[in-house]
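Deliverable D4.2, example record:
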Amino acid sequence: EPLAQRLGALLAQRILDIPSLPDSLVVVPVPLYRSKRSERGFNQAERLARAAISVLRRQRPALRLQLCTGLLERRRATESQAGLTPHQRRANVRGAFSVPRADAVKGRDVLLIDDIYTTGATARACATALTRAGATRVWVATVARAQKEFATITEAEPAEARIETDLPMEQDFVCWDGISGGRVDHDGRLGTNART
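Output generated by the structure prediction step:
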């Protein structure tokens, strides 16, 4: 818990750096599947979200932040993403998330919180579910960003696996725009379309 508080405070500082951060946000932690949540006893993304919200409310009282822990659901268990290729990661989480109460996000900006951003497959799958439910934009904030080692791609891998979908390391956050269906990078440029 104390670690989540410290990391959440760091995350809050980075969130405050987002240009044009909306004044009203639905804050959604990336959910765990119910058996994983029971096994672990907590959701690390939820703890980070709670800690970040606490700091954000103190530092920018005008922000209207609504934590919605049950808004996004993981419909099925997914295998660990560790060791999977980018293509396998996307396939692993494709269709794994849903928004049972679309009315709670319709026309709203959403701040999605997770612990780590590796290839963006989880963030992309969550953002897709949220924008399909009517969210205007999905802002993604994570505590850590995995750095690419030397990636090798074999000819046996599908062409889709060879397409670069990662954000460059110097980009600190990403936003999926539900209106255009595209990714808006940290400087406001419209990036590549979010895929599922």
